Amino acid sequence: MPMEVQSFTCPRCRRGEFRSIPGPDGKAFCPWCGDSVGPGSAAPESAPLPEFSLEELAERIASKYAAPPTAQAAPDLDTRLAESERRREAAEAELRRELEKKQEIKKAVQAEIARLEAELAEARDRVRRKDQEHAAALQDLNLLKTAREDQWNGDRMRLQFSTEEKEKALRTFEARLVESQKSASEFRQVLDASRAEVGRLHAEVAAAQAERSELRRKLSAADGKLQSLKEAPAQLEGLKHRLQESQAKGAGLQAELDKRDRRIKELQLLVKTLGERLNDLADRPQGRPSKGS
Q: Do the domain assignments include residue 10?
């Protein structure tokens, strides 16, 4: 994880915001009180440790080892010396802690400086490569510029030569044009005669086209008649087939009609027989059986 400089505010000494590199736990040490400060958490407030200057610390140490002036002030002096010794030890311990914290800060700063130096070296390397690429690009550009100038010079020479050739051709063409203008009157006479001949030919072509259209109309009419004549046998065959089918159907209907006539005759004979039978039954006297019964 890369080390980045962050802003911290110590809630203990409240001396303002300071910038430092956080440690592995994400905290930094306050440069004034040496307390561990997190980037977003507030540390519990505690009583500040007493601060001593070098002069005060020297006076207190001298007073500790100095001989007591009187026997009455000896107990008070011993108490003060003991208190001074305790404060000195506390100050030394605090100083050692401060030195340890500063060493850690120094190590973190050195690590950050090393990282920045590595980034600076890498940036310089990139700049050097860019400079080399730029120099190579400039060299290529110069070569391309030289080649383009050579090409332009060659094109300019070819264009100049071509212009001279065209001017010579133009002078030749002007001379020929003068000669052509001299013979233009003769060509105009021939052209008038040709136009008259073309007009006559156009008239003949129009008459021929009209005659061809009439012939095509007659040919179309003949083709229509011929097509109708070609279709006549097929139509005749169809009519014959339909006639045969009608005759077959007529024969079938005739047979059916014959069957119905025979059936009707049989029914008429049966009705007649039944009528005679009923008449016989009606003419017989009642109570006498008939001969045929």
A: yes
Q: Which domain holds residue 37?
A: 1-43
The predicted pLDDT at position 127 comes to: 92
Residue 143 maps to a domain? no
Per the CB < 8 A criterion, the answer to whether 35 and 44 are in contact is no
Residues 16-45 pLDDT 10s: 788 888 888 888 888 888 788 887 644 444
Torsion of CA 120, 126, 132, 134, to 10 degrees: -110
**Threshold 0.85, pTM exceeds:** no
Q: What is the pLDDT of residues 127-158, one digit of tens each?
A: 999 889 989 989 898 898 999 899 989 888 89
The residue among 54 and 271 whose pLDDT is bigger is: 271
Which of 221, 251, 271 is the last residue before a domain boundary?
A: 221
Q: What is the total count of domains within the chain?
A: 2
* Contact predicate 45/33, CB 8 Å: no
Confirm whether 195 is domain-assigned. Answer: yes
Q: Which of 171, 203, 221 is the last residue of a domain?
A: 221
Q: What's the CA gap between 222 and 211, in Å, rounded?
A: 16
Domain presence at residue 203? yes
